[in-house]
Write a structure and sequence with these properties.
alpha/beta
Length: 261
């Protein structure tokens, strides 16, 4: 049995160590979104964020749960949302506060959000559930702080990804794959996510595949060809990553869910 609290603390420590790397990647995304798999994944995710979240915030309240370096918050604030953010890593929060000087950004546990019930119209949570042995308590908290009819946009890690990352992470977390971060992560299916969100009070739940393909292996084993491969692959990726059963093979899920009224 995994110690839930110990796992969360390990994830926070790892992300504190990587805060500078995350800032560099997010700032570099606009310059060259094909330079590595991280920025490519965020490019593909941005397509779904723009579909799900209005282009104009209209002063709606939005909470970024696990806001990290605050780059999503900065973009949404510029679109008119009343943003707020929480994260467990003080190193990440230093960056988030610097680039969002007038935003309410707090150090907090994603399973104990420091806000009143029904405080927000939107909740965004990018790459948080993958570090939780059980994603349901965090989703329940997201539902608690959402107003009735509010929307959650949340990513998760597919168990059957073509990158075979569930297996790779199991080995790396045990220390058997040197050169990879030894932090255990957790994987799920579209069905498990749908059931978990509905149990937390969401009455409309969509699960989509964000991007597809064993591209991380290309980056690791044949990096010089990564950029042209991603350029060529993206139009295909955009058509097939969310297509029927292929969704379960994608490398990232995004859940778009409405809280019941």
């Amino acid at each position: 049995m995994v110690d839930h609290e110990r796992q969360k603390k390990a994830a926070v420590r790892t992300h504190s160590d990587q805060a500078g790397q995350f800032e560099e990647r997010y700032e570099g995304e606009a310059k060259d979104p094909y330079s590595n798999c991280f920025v490519y994944s965020r490019k593909r995710l941005q397509v779904w964020l723009e579909r799900a979240i209005p282009a104009v915030g209209g002063d709606q309240g939005l909470l970024d749960v696990g806001c990290g370096t605050g780059h999503h918050l900065r973009d949404l604030q510029a679109r008119g949302f009343r943003g707020a953010g929480v994260d467990g890593s003080e190193e990440m929060l230093k960056v988030a506060r610097r680039i969002n000087p007038r935003v309410d950004i707090r150090a907090a546990d994603v399973e104990a959000l420091p806000f009143e019930n029904k405080s927000f119209d939107w909740v965004l949570s990018i790459e948080v559930l993958r570090y939780l042995p059980d994603f349901r308590p965090a989703v329940k908290e997201m539902g608690r702080v959402l107003a009735p009819g509010g929307m959650a946009v949340v990513t998760a890690c597919p168990r059957f990804s073509l990158n075979a990352y569930a297996l790779v992470n199991r080995l790396s977390a045990s220390g058997k794959l040197p050169g990879l971060t030894a932090l255990r992560q957790y994987f799920t299916t579209g069905g498990e996510l749908s059931r978990g969100f509905k149990a937390a009070g969401f009455d409309q739940v969509e699960v989509h595949g964000v991007y597809l393909g064993p591209i991380n292996w290309i980056e690791r084993l044949a990096r010089p060809i990564l950029r042209p491969v991603l350029h060529a692959w993206e139009p295909v990726d955009a058509r097939v990553a969310d297509l029927g059963p292929l969704r379960e093979l994608s490398n990232m899920f995004v859940v778009i869910a409405r809280k019941g009224v």
